[in-house]
C-alpha cells in the first residue's frame, strides 16, 4: 500500500496532473452514462409499477429517449428572468453540481480503487462536500425572484440541514466499528474475520441512514423542495436549458453517490464471491437505486412539519441510541 501511494510525498509534475485530469474525465463520462440510463430505468420502472408503458419511441425499447431529452435541453434558450439577480442566477446551478461530482473522488468502486482517492478522511470529505450543494440550491431559489423558487430553496435548506445530522451520526456507528474514516478501510474491515457486513451489527444505523439519505436526496416521500403540485418545480422553476440540466444532473449524480456510499458502508462495497469486485459494487448500487425509485412509485409526499419533526424527534434520538449500542458492542468484542 505504501508503494502505491508513494507519489503523495512527491511534488506535482506534468505527468501527475495529466493523470488526474484523465481520471476526472473518465469518471465524468462514466457518471454521465450512469445518470442517463438511471433516468431511463426510473421512467420504465415507475411506468411498469403504475401499469404504463414508459418510454418506447426513441430508439429500440426507448433506450435513446433520455439522450433525446438531454439534447433538447442543451439546445433550448437559456432564459434569465428580467428581475432576477443575474450573476447569482447564472452561477447557482454550477455551485449545486460541482460538489455532487467531487464526492465521487472517495467512493471506492473496486479493490484497486482506480481513478478514486485513498483518503483517511473519506467519510468527512463526503459529508462536508455534499453539504455545499445547499448553497447553490438556496442561491438559485433566491436569485430567481420567484415566490415558488424562494419557498423551494428555503424548504431545501431546512430539510438538508435537519437530515444531515442523523445521516452523519448514523455513519459514525460504522466509523466506530471499523476504527477508520477511510472508505477503503471500512470495506476491508467488513471483509476481514468475522466476515460480516455492517448491515448486521449496524441495522438500526442503516435504517436511520436510508431514511436520512432519502431526505437528503429530496426523493419521494421527502420531495418537498420541488413539490410540483404546490411549488411548480421549487427552486428550479425559473431555470431552462442547460442550467436546468445542471440541477437535474446534480440530483442523479447524488443518487449514484449516496447509493455507492450506502453499499460501501453497510454491504461490503466491492466484496463478494466469484464475480469481480466492480460487478458486486454495481449490483449493490443498483439495488439502492431501485429502492429509491420504488419509493417514488408507491409513497405519497408528507407535510413539511412532519418531515422536520421526524428528523429531530425520532431519527436523531435513534442515531444516539445506535452510537451507544455500537460503543458497547465494540467494547464487548475487544
TrEMBL record:
It is found in: Cell membrane; Membrane. Pfam families: NADHdh. The keyword ATP-binding does not apply. GO terms for cellular component: plasma membrane. It is a multi-pass membrane protein. It comes from the Bacteria. One of its GO terms (molecular function) is NADH dehydrogenase activity. Keywords: Cell membrane, Membrane, NAD, Oxidoreductase, Quinone, Translocase, Transmembrane, Transmembrane helix, Ubiquinone. Its EC number is 7.1.1.-. It catalyses: a quinone + NADH + 5 H(+)(in) = a quinol + NAD(+) + 4 H(+)(out). GO terms for biological process: aerobic respiration. The keyword Translocase applies. The chain crosses the membrane at residues 20-40, 88-111, 123-144, 165-183, 195-215, 252-271, 277-295, 307-333. NDH-1 is composed of 14 different subunits. Subunits NuoA, H, J, K, L, M, N constitute the membrane sector of the complex. Belongs to the complex I subunit 1 family. NDH-1 shuttles electrons from NADH, via FMN and iron-sulfur (Fe-S) centers, to quinones in the respiratory chain. The immediate electron acceptor for the enzyme in this species is believed to be ubiquinone. Couples the redox reaction to proton translocation (for every two electrons transferred, four hydrogen ions are translocated across the cytoplasmic membrane), and thus conserves the redox energy in a proton gradient. This subunit may bind ubiquinone. This is NADH-quinone oxidoreductase subunit H.
Amino acid at each position: 500500500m505504501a508503494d502505491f501511494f508513494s507519489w503523495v510525498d512527491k511534488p506535482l509534475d506534468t505527468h501527475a496532473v495529466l493523470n488526474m485530469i484523465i481520471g476526472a474525465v473518465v469518471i465524468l463520462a462514466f457518471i454521465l452514462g450512469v445518470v442517463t440510463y438511471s433516468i431511463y430505468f426510473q421512467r420504465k420502472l415507475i411506468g411498469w409499477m403504475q401499469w404504463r408503458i414508459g418510454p418506447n419511441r426513441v430508439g429500440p425499447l426507448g433506450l435513446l429517449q433520455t439522450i433525446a431529452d438531454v439534447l433538447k435541453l442543451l439546445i433550448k434558450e437559456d432564459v434569465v428572468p428580467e428581475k432576477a439577480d443575474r450573476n447569482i442566477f447564472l452561477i447557482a446551478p454550477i455551485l449545486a453540481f460541482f460538489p455532487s461530482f467531487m464526492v465521487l473522488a472517495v467512493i471506492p468502486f473496486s479493490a484497486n480503487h482506480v481513478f478514486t482517492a485513498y483518503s483517511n478522511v473519506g467519510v468527512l470529505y463526503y459529508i462536508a462536500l455534499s453539504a455545499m450543494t445547499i448553497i447553490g440550491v438556496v442561491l438559485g431559489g433566491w436569485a430567481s425572484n420567484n415566490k415558488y423558487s424562494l419557498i423551494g430553496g428555503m424548504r431545501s435548506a431546512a430539510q438538508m440541514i435537519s437530515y444531515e445530522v442523523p445521516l452523519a451520526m448514523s455513519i459514525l456507528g460504522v466509523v466506530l466499528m471499523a476504527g477508520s474514516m477511510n472508505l477503503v478501510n471500512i470495506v476491508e474491515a467488513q471483509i476481514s474475520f468475522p466476515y460480516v457486513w455492517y448491515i448486521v451489527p449496524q441495522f438500526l444505523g442503516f435504517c436511520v441512514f436510508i431514511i436520512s439519505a432519502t431526505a437528503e436526496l429530496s426523493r419521494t416521500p421527502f420531495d418537498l423542495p420541488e413539490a410540483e403540485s404546490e411549488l411548480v418545480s421549487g427552486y428550479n422553476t425559473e431555470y431552462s436549458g442547460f442550467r436546468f440540466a445542471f440541477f437535474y444532473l446534480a440530483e442523479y449524480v447524488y443518487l449514484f453517490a449516496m447509493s455507492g456510499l450506502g453499499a460501501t458502508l453497510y454491504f461490503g462495497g466491492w466484496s463478494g464471491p466469484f464475480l469481480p469486485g466492480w460487478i458486486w459494487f454495481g449490483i449493490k448500487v443498483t439495488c439502492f437505486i431501485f429502492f429509491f425509485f420504488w419509493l417514488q412509485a408507491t409513497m405519497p409526499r408528507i407535510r413539511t412539519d412532519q418531515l422536520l419533526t421526524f428528523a429531530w424527534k425520532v431519527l436523531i434520538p435513534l442515531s444516539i441510541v445506535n452510537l451507544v449500542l455500537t460503543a458497547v458492542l465494540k467494547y464487548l468484542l475487544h
